[in-house]
Design goal:
elongated, Glutamate--tRNA ligase, nucleotide-binding, 10% strand, mainly alpha, tRNA binding, 382 residues, 4 domains
Length: 382
């Protein structure tokens, strides 16, 4: 065992101090304004192992420990600030620091990359490495990821599981891009793929200050990565989200056209899928705010536009746009007053592509059904 090797080399000792004795020691240190730490009282007693003893590392008592950090440069710890940490508990189980050092050695780890909150662990682990005769490792302690309130990232200000982001439809490449950009930059370049990072990333260029996680920046990055997908790849990635919402997209022969029109409506796949609900299922309700602002009192607009649309010889975006323009002129209305009631009747909200394109994604029968349903809704409101 590694612990036995350290003990036999003279770099560890058994300590049988009781919890009460240690509590009293720390209390006296705090009263004297000193840093609470084990004072080494059993260090030179040559105690034998008992059922109540722990094994402690003989940390050097003077001098300093110096190591080079790839992010922070030269880091110095005074050995007098480090106490004799426990290697084995009284039940014989190893502690975190010993397990960490031995595990890294057995796995052939050469470089340790971790958060700056582990910086204070490094001198302790280096002393254990030295006691075991292990080779030195490289270290890089990255800045902590902070929320927009500049406090340590928590569930209060962001999702903290990568899987949760994937479940919302953020791409793996987007998360890699976002995480790489936390505390690191390459000029004005913002969008990176894995091959770019392999070529451009240098851990020595990572900043020391905490990196702020900005959800809106992730949305922007994911938008770019989604836009870079071929349509077939985008649709393939979207389908599981449509399925999860119970949307039968195959019922529409023009499902690809609908998806293409909506692919940039939201910055993640779940949001796009949710926006597709009114295109692949019956409309069950209207957004209250939108209805109160634009739909209430729009009976004349709905009926006038409906007549115009039913008079079209061809059903396509261009002919629909022409009919809408004629309707706007005939009713002498500003664009929102004409378009939004129709948009709400078709999708339940004011959010959709251009109105001509939106209407063209439905057939005329569906358009009539939804305008009639909106008129019935308005009739029931009066």
């Amino acid at each position: 065992l590694a612990a036995e090797q350290i003990f036999e080399s003279g770099n560890a000792y058994w300590c049988d101090c009781s919890k009460e004795a240690l509590d009293e020691m720390r209390k006296e240190q705090e009263t004297a304004g000193k840093k609470p730490m084990y004072d080494g009282r059993s260090r030179d007693l040559g105690l034998e192992r008992t059922n109540n003893s722990v094994l402690r590392l003989k940390t050097p008592q003077d001098g300093e420990l110096v190591f080079h950090d790839l992010v922070r440069g030269e880091v110095i710890f005074q050995n007098s600030e480090l106490d004799d940490l426990i290697l084995l508990r009284s039940d014989g189980s190893p502690t975190y620091h010993l397990c960490n050092v031995v595990d890294d050695f057995n796995q052939g780890v050469t470089t340790v990359v971790r958060g700056e909150d582990h910086l204070s662990n490094t001198p302790r682990q280096i002393h254990i490495q030295n006691a075991l005769g292990y080779d030195s490792l490289e270290y890089a302690h990255l800045p902590m990821v902070l929320g927009q309130d500049k406090k340590r990232l928590s569930k209060r200000n962001a999702v903290t599981s990568l899987q949760d982001y994937f479940d919302q439809g953020y791409l793996e490449s987007s998360m890699i891009n976002m995480l790489a950009r936390l505390g690191w930059s390459k000029g004005d370049k913002e969008i990176f793929y894995l091959d770019d990072l392999i070529s451009d990333f240098r851990i020595q260029e990572v900043q020391k200050a905490g990196a702020i996680f900005d959800p809106s920046k992730l949305d922007w990055i994911n938008n770019h990565h989604l836009a870079a997908l071929s349509f077939d790849d985008f649709k393939k990635r979207l389908i599981p989200f449509l399925d999860a919402l119970g949307l039968d997209y195959m019922q529409k022969q023009n499902n690809s056209e609908i998806i293409a029109a909506m692919r940039s409506s939201k910055p993640n796949l779940l949001g796009v899928a949710q926006d597709l609900i009114p295109y692949f299922s019956e409309l069950s309700s209207y957004d209250d705010k939108a209805a109160n602002k634009f739909l209430i009192g729009s009976e004349v607009v709905l009926e006038y536009v409906q007549r115009k649309l039913n008079g079209l010889e061809e059903w396509n975006e261009d002919s629909i746009d022409k009919a809408l323009k004629e309707a706007q002129t005939g009713l002498s209305l500003p664009t929102p007053k004409l378009n939004q009631p129709i948009r709400i009747a078709m999708t339940g909200s004011t959010q959709s592509p251009s109105l001509g394109l939106t209407l063209s994604l439905f057939n005329l029968e569906e358009v009539n059904q939804r305008i009639n349903a909106a008129l019935d809704y308005l009739s029931n409101q009066s």
